[in-house]
Structure formats: C-alpha cells, structure tokens
C-alpha cells in the first residue's frame, strides 16, 4: 500500500536542521522520506501534477540521480539518491540511498504491483524483473562509490521492503553487506510453532550473518506483524538449542507445497536483524463502523507512521547465535 498523501506531501516539519546520522530516529525519518519521494514521483508521472516530491529528498540534502522504471508498465518503482556532504550533519552519512516504493493500487500500476505481491507470497520475488533491475542499479552505485560499502544504503516500504531485503541479502552473500531499512516488510507466514521439526542442520552463511537489516513493523499490520512472532520463535528455539532446526523450518513454504509452485528463498529467513516495533496507538479517522478496520490497517501499514514526532518504539535484535529482546 502507498505512503502518505494530501497535506503530508510537503515533508516532515519537525526534522532538525542538522541530521545526526548516529541517531536512529533521524535515520528513520530520512530513509522513510526518501521512499515517500518515490511514491510521489510515480503519482506525479501518472496524474501529470506537481506534488513537490523533491521536498522529500532535498529537505535532507539529497538529490535525485536516477529513477528505476518498471519495464512491464513504465512506472517508477525506485530511485537512487545522492547526499550532498556539505549539508549540515553529524556522524557518517550515506553517499547514496537506493529506495523502493510499495504497492500503488492505481489503474496503471496495480497489475504489476499485485504481481510483485504474489511473488512475495510464494517466495519468488528474486525472479521478478524489478529485483533483477534493482540489483543492477545497486551494483552501478557501488562501482561509483568504490571507497566503502557503508556509503550505500537500501530502503523500501511494503513490496519495496521485500525488494530491499532480497537485494541486501543477495549482495551480503557476495561479501557486500549494505545497511538496509525495511518498512512494513511483506512477511506472511503460517505460525512457526506449527512447522514440523526436520532432522537436518544448516550452517548460517557467515557473510549473511554479518549483515543486519533494520525491520520496522506494526503489530496491527497483518502484512508484517508475523515478524514479531518469528523473532519470539527464534529466541525460544535458540534457548532450547534448536536454532539450526528453526532455520530449516523457516525456509519451508507450505504455500508453495500446497499450490505446487517452486519456492525461492523466504524474505524472513534472516540470520540477524534489528526490529523496531511501533507501539504508538493511533486514533481512528472515521466514525463509520464498517470502515474502521480499513482505516486501522491503513494507519498500521502506512509509511507516515515512521516519521511522526514522539515515536513509541520497542527495539528488538537478534543474531543467529544470540537473539535477544531489548
């Protein structure tokens, strides 16, 4: 689902003039805002209106250097942004950020966006054209930023979060771990406690284990709330010494077995991650009883929740060897 719209098109008003790149909240505001810029770029292209999308990156010292175009419907699904290091800041900023939007249920984008969602559902997102193009775009950025991989970040929301995670993991396997921010990632799974224990083991790839993406989830968002249960299950399995069995179980897609479809690698099969859970309660925007579930989901899955002032987040982290709740 899409990001914010209407009066929120002008960008977050409460952001400090100077970005502290060591501050998690500042990093969250900036990366989610760049994704919102991608949403607005596509809306501008489709509606042929000026929604001032540039404010969502220029306000933070970034410039737009490349748009990623979906070859199936000519829509903008991603963008490459470059940071102007002369902008007031503290800490180590990224040199480039590659951002990916999520699903837009509009006439010209819904078909290919839904197709991407189906690929997520069956763990085949890495077989789509967006993923292939995204890998090429990131590799091009890496060639330009030859100093350190820490200078290139990935960010995505919803379907775009799935793409960012798959790109990040693929590059991590090749020894190129990139800082990755995944907002409301599409992780739909059956409860892990119902998975059978399989009598085999699997060693974690140490290169992937060294990559620690940031997952932003809302308990009321059915598209990503399973992340929380997965973390709890990882902790439980690690405590009883069955962490390796859990990795195998998580790799099994019962949806693919049921439908007879060849499965790829699940997005949720991660060795390490930092998870930020939004615990802030939002007011309903409507008194219509029939519409309240939709508004509740829209709030829980929306991108704007991550740049709102006065956040209330729980932070959890896990590694393949030492999952923990902070």
Give your account of this protein's structure.
It is a single chain. The chain is α/β, with parallel strands linked by helices and 326 residues long. The protein has ten helices and eleven strands. The strands form two sheets. Strands 2-3-5-6-7-8-9-10-11 form a nine-stranded mixed β-sheet, with helices on both faces. It has a two-stranded parallel ribbon with strand order 1-4. Strand 7, helix 6 (206-209) and strand 8 form a beta-alpha-beta unit. Helix 7 (226-239) packs antiparallel against helix 8 (243-250). Residues 190-203, 245-261 and 322-326 have low confidence and may be disordered. This is Fungal lipase-type domain-containing protein. InterPro entries: AB_hydrolase_fold, Fungal_lipase-type. Keywords: Hydrolase. It holds the Pfam family Lipase_3. Residues 113-186 form the Fungal lipase-type domain.
Give me the Rg, rounded: 19 Å
* Element order: H for helix, E for strand: EHHEEEEHHEHEHEHHHEHEE
Q: How would you state the average pLDDT, rounded?
A: 76
Termini separation = 30 Å
The neighbouring-strand order within the major sheet is 2-3-5-6-7-8-9-10-11
Q: What is the helix tally?
A: 10
- Tell the overall outline: globular
Number of strands: 11
Structural class designation? alpha/beta
The proportion of residues forming helix, as a percent range, comes to 25-40%
Catalogue the unreliable spans.
190-203, 245-261, 322-326
The main sheet comes to: 9 strands, mixed
% residues in beta strands: 15-25%
Keywords: Hydrolase
InterPro entries: AB_hydrolase_fold, Fungal_lipase-type
Pfam families: Lipase_3
Domain Fungal lipase-type: 113-186
């Amino acid at each position: 689902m899409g990001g914010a719209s209407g009066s929120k098109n002008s960008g977050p008003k409460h952001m400090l003039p100077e970005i502290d790149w060591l501050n998690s909240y500042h990093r969250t505001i900036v990366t989610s805002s760049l994704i919102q810029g991608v949403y607005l770029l596509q809306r501008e292209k489709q509606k042929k209106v000026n929604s001032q999308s540039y404010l969502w990156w220029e306000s933070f010292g970034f410039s737009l250097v490349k748009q990623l175009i979906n070859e199936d419907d000519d829509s903008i699904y991603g963008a490459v942004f470059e940071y102007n290091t002369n902008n007031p800041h503290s800490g180590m900023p990224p040199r480039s950020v590659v951002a990916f939007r999520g699903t837009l249920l509009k006439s010209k984008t819904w078909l290919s966006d839904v197709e991407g969602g189906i690929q997520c559902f069956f763990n085949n997102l890495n077989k789509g054209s967006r993923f292939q193009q995204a890998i090429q775009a990131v590799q091009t950025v890496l060639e330009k930023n030859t100093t350190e991989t820490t200078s290139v970040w990935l960010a995505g929301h919803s379907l775009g979060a799935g793409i960012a995670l798959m790109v990040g993991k693929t590059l991590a396997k090749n020894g190129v771990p990139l800082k990755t921010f995944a907002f409301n990632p599409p992780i739909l799974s059956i409860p892990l406690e119902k998975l059978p224990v399989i009598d085999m083991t699997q060693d974690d790839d140490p290169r992937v284990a060294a990559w620690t993406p940031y997952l932003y989830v809302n308990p009321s968002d059915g598209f990503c709330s399973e992340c929380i249960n997965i973390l709890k299950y990882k902790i439980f399995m690690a405590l009883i010494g069955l962490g390796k069995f859990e990795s195998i179980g998580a790799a099994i897609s019962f949806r693919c077995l049921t439908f007879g479809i060849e499965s790829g690698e699940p997005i949720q099969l991660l060795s390490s991650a930092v998870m930020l859970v939004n615990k802030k309660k939002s007011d309903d925007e409507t008194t219509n009883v029939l519409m309240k579930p939709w508004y509740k989901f829209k709030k829980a899955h929306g991108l704007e929740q991550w740049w709102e002032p006065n956040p209330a987040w729980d932070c959890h982290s896990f590694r393949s060897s030492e999952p923990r709740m902070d």
